[in-house]
């Protein structure tokens, strides 16, 4: 069945939040799709980068239910080619920040083997949890 | 001096609020005022007659009408005083209706006091008025058209047919321009060469048109009615009058080159005919490639090298010693139709143009289609063809934010033409157009788009990210998101065609520099007003047509070209140009020749003569921007002289009471003053601290005048002007902003609130914003104490030090 979505006025709060955190004028995205075509990781993504932009425009918070923002490696291919001069990877970063601030853990520390944990640089864990850094 | 003052009741509009008798009595006390009368309707026949009779009877030499807005009835009273034999520039109006009665209706006392003050300001203004004459300069019927593309051809034909003397200058060997390189034209699919060819042929037939082909503009000096043009005709090495266009010279020529008229799709020789329907239809030798000319240039001597074409020519038309020739002539108006170049697709390396042999640009495909249609096929387009839209348009990465307006339609056309040719030949073609938005806005365009869709061309919404070549098969893979299907397409094509956008041509850039024409943000030439003067430039007598003004298709170019012809005729047909005497002038005695004013003038009206600055009144636009640049007070502006401005400011502040605050608003007549009138008409009340003074442009208000006003007790100053893009005066608002910032810094330095001075750009519908700003300025004035006497003194003493000793 095709998903049905209600667009409420309060949806703009989510858009505002992502715009503030990313510093990007997300509403100017035309969805030409250059970001998606340029992205080397779309093969792992559930929705495309340009789809993320359009969902955020309408304030659809369920954009964060898809894995795409975690797959983004901030390689900046999308940003280098966006004809509207948008930094798409900053938008992905903003979404990750919002999710992490909701005390969401992308990584379950218990599931990482002890030996591996010893090898991991501390900054990788700090980065993943964002308790203090975002 | 004998000044007559008239205070109008406006049938109660004014007199219901303002005590007009009290205003008249106060006015009568002012020096030089012979009498002050009040009357029910000054603008009525009786009112005007009263003024006329009084001028004669009382020998008045100045008249002040204290009534409505001068924008409303200024011309009425000018005409009236002329009937009495008075110079029209010796009457002024004080606006006690829109700027007083209608906005201070809630306090009759305050309204009356303000009306008295406004009337006194008016008396001071008119006291300093001088008789002026409108400026008339003769203008003939000679016009220069630069560029022989479809726009230039159309303009030249319209003017030539109407009996004007046209000089059409084209830098290429043939006229026809970009349109001559097209296959067919949308949305009717008629052949470009056929419909253009007859227009081109009409040029040499028209006895009023002189064509200088293969010629470049070297220099243009002067102004409307007297442009002195120098052109340079490049040598063709073939005498046009002897050449019979037989073409026998071509075969022996050993040089083979890419033919630029054919976008390199075919080759030409060093001696060639630019296109088969060239006008003039004469052969020429490419001086950069011909072996003989190259040898000649190397040694500086006539050379024996090659000369095969010379032997083949039965007419003896070839002349290797031909030199460039200069020609000088005078015209009255100029039409710039220099056209466009296409975007250099190598600037988008991800699409591989110039790197992959099967990536083409759309203009090349035009020629491929022409040659195929003529039965001499060149490049095989293969079976699977992809068009990539918006290459060089709508892309911030390459600094092109604008839409080129024709690419959607030409890609649709080319795919339609390829399809229908293939159908005739029984071939299969699979064509995809990858677009961001399809814009088929013109008459018959949407229908054309639908026809193309019906023919089976697939339109896919998504901008391709990159094109990758298979190094063995040379086939091209496009990677693109189909944004309507949420899928990523990776598909192979035989040819990829880039739909390249337009940019101002190189020649257009050169002409812009020669004529000092401003460009808009997109890099094209700027029109004087985007809505109401779309083919005028900010330079009088210079017009723009076609793609030099911005991307457009053939119908629009032709319409615009005819519009320029009409606009040019409108000027030339009058025989003379009449202008308001709103002009800056130099007090030669005061000028010390420092030259600082020269660069302050955007239309370059100021030059130095014998060590003194001189302003050309024909070029001067009357913005007054130059005044602030002069440290010797030697520049002044008619109708708004330094003395006048200062007298008005002084009159506004002279009677200021201790608990009172005065905010001066200098409003330009086109936006600020008009807006203040609208606020009055809408009866939107604002603080009575406001005094609105009309100026042609806020750049007339020098930092010096603002500081003088503060030293005389002004509590705030607001400059109200147009938005930069709709201003009549190039650069004036930017300059006024600088002036305001200068004054803000000085106020900060002496511990005064810098918010006392402000500039705002208005459009004439911003009524609430204007009211809010005026009230805000008044609030700031009341929040702060008046500027202390000590600070007034400091300002007064330091004005010239602050402004000129740096």
Describe it.
The complex is a heterodimer of chains A (134) and B (806). Chain A is built from 8 helices and no strands. Chain A is an all-alpha fold. Chain A folds into 2 domains: 11-102, Fumarate Reductase Iron-sulfur Protein, Chain B, domain 2; 106-134, no CATH class. The model of chain A has no long low-confidence stretch (mean pLDDT 90). With 806 residues, chain B is an alpha/beta fold. Chain B has 6 domains: 1-133, 3-Layer(aba) Sandwich (Rossmann fold); 135-221 and 332-339 and 505-576, FAD/NAD(P)-binding domain (3-Layer(bba) Sandwich), CATH 3.50.50; 235-323, Alpha-Beta Plaits (2-Layer Sandwich), CATH 3.30.70; 343-501, 3-Layer(bba) Sandwich (FAD/NAD(P)-binding domain); 583-637, Alpha-Beta Plaits; 640-806, Rossmann fold. Chain B contains 20 helices and 38 strands. In chain B, the strands form 13 sheets. Chain B has a 5-stranded parallel beta sheet with strand order 10-7-6-18-29. In chain B, strands 20-27-21-22-23 form a 5-stranded parallel beta sheet. In chain B, helix 6 packs across helix 7 (192-205). The model of chain B has no long low-confidence stretch (mean pLDDT 95). The interface between A and B is medium-sized, with 20 and 21 residues.
């Amino acid at each position: 069945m095709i998903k049905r979505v209600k667009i409420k006025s309060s949806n703009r709060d989510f858009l505002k939040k992502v715009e503030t955190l990313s510093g990007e004028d997300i509403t100017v995205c035309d969805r030409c799709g250059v970001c998606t075509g340029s992205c080397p990781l779309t093969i792992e993504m559930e929705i495309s980068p340009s789809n993320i932009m359009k969902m955020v425009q309408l304030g659809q918070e369920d954009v964060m239910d898809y894995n795409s923002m975690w797959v983004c490696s901030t390689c900046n291919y999308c940003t280098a080619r966006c004809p509207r001069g948008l930094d798409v990877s900053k938008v992905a970063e903003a979404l990750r920040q919002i999710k992490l601030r909701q005390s969401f853990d992308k990584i379950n520390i218990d599931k990482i083997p002890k030996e591996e944990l010893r090898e991991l640089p501390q900054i990788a864990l700090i980065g993943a949890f964002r308790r203090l850094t975002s | 001096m004998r000044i007559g003052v008239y205070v109008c009741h406006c049938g109660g509009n004014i007199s219901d609020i303002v005590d007009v008798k009290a205003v008249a009595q106060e006015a009568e006390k002012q020096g030089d005022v012979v009498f002050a009368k009040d009357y029910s309707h000054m603008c009525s026949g009786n009112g005007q007659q009263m003024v006329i009779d009084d001028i004669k009877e009382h020998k008045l030499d100045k008249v002040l009408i204290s009534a409505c807005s001068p924008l409303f009835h200024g011309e009425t009273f000018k005409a009236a005083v002329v009937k009495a034999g008075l110079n029209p520039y010796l009457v002024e109006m004080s606006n006690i209706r829109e700027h007083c009665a209608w906005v201070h209706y809630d306090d009759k006392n305050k309204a009356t006091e303000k009306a008295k003050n406004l009337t006194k300001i008016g008396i001071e203004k008119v006291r300093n008025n001088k008789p002026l004459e409108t400026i008339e300069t003769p203008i003939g019927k000679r016009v220069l058209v630069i560029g022989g593309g479809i726009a230039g051809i159309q303009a030249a034909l319209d003017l030539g047919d109407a009996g004007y003397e046209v000089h059409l200058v084209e830098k290429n060997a043939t006229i026809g321009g970009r349109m001559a390189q097209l296959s067919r034209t949308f949305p009717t699919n008629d052949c470009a060469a056929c419909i253009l060819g007859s227009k081109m042929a009409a040029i040499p037939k028209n006895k009023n048109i002189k064509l200088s082909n293969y010629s470049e503009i070297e220099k243009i000096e002067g102004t409307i009615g007297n442009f002195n043009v120098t052109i340079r005709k490049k040598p063709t090495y073939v005498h046009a009058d002897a050449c019979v266009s037989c073409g026998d010279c071509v075969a022996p020529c050993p040089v083979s080159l890419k033919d630029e008229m054919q976008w390199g799709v075919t080759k030409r020789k060093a001696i060639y005919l630019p296109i088969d329907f060239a006008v003039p239809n004469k052969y020429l030798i490419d001086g950069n490639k011909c072996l003989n000319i190259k040898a000649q240039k190397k040694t500086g001597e006539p050379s024996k090298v090659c000369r095969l074409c010379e032997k083949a020519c039965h007419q003896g038309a070839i002349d290797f010693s031909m030199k460039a020739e200069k020609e000088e002539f005078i015209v009255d108006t100029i039409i710039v139709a220099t056209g466009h170049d296409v975007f250099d697709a190598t600037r988008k390396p991800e699409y591989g143009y110039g790197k992959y042999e099967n990536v083409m640009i759309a203009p090349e495909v035009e020629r491929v289609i022409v040659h195929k249609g003529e039965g001499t096929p060149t490049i095989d387009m293969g079976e699977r063809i992809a068009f990539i839209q918006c290459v060089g348009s709508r892309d911030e990465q390459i600094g092109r934010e604008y839409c080129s307006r024709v690419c959607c339609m030409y890609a649709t056309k080319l795919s339609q033409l390829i399809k229908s040719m293939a159908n005739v030949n029984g071939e299969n073609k699979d064509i995809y157009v990858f677009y961001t938005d399809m814009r088929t806005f013109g008459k018959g365009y949407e229908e054309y788009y639908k026809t193309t869709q019906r023919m089976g061309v697939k339109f896919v919404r998504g901008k391709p990210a990159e094109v990758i070549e298979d190094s063995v098969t040379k086939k091209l893979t496009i990677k693109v998101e189909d944004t309507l299907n949420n899928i990523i397409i990776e598909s192979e094509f035989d040819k990829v065609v880039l739909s390249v956008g337009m940019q101002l041509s190189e020649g257009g850039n050169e002409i812009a520099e020669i004529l000092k024409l401003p460009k808009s943000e997109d890099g094209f030439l700027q029109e004087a007003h985007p809505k109401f003067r779309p083919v005028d430039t900010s330079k009088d007598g210079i017009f723009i047509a076609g793609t030099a003004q911005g991307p457009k298709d053939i119908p629009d170019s032709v319409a615009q070209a005819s519009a320029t012809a009409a606009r040019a005729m409108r000027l030339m047909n009058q025989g003379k140009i009449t202008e308001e005497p709103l002009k800056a002038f130099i007090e030669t005695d005061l000028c010390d020749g420092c030259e600082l004013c020269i660069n302050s003038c955007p239309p370059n009206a100021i030059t130095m003569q014998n060590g003194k600055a001189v302003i050309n009144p024909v070029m001067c636009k009357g913005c007054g921007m130059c005044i602030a640049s002069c440290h010797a007070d030697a520049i002044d502006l008619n109708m708004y002289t330094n003395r006048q401005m200062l007298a008005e400011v002084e009159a506004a502040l002279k009677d200021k009471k201790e608990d009172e605050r005065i905010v001066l608003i200098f409003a330009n007549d086109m936006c600020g003053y008009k807006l203040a009138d609208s606020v009055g008409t809408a009866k939107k009340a604002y603080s009575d601290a406001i005094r609105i003074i009309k100026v042609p442009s806020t750049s007339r208000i020098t930092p010096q005048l603002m500081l003088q006003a503060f030293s005389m007790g002004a509590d705030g100053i607001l400059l109200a002007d147009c938005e930069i893009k709709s201003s009549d005066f190039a650069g004036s608002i930017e300059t006024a902003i600088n002036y305001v910032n200068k004054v803000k810094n000085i106020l900060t330095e002496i511990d005064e609130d810098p918010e006392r001075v402000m500039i705002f750009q208005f459009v004439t519908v911003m009524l609430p914003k204007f009211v809010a700003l005026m009230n805000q300025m008044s609030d700031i004035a009341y929040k702060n104490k008046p500027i202390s006497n000590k600070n007034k003194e400091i300002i007064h003493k330091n004005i010239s030090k602050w402004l000129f000793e740096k």
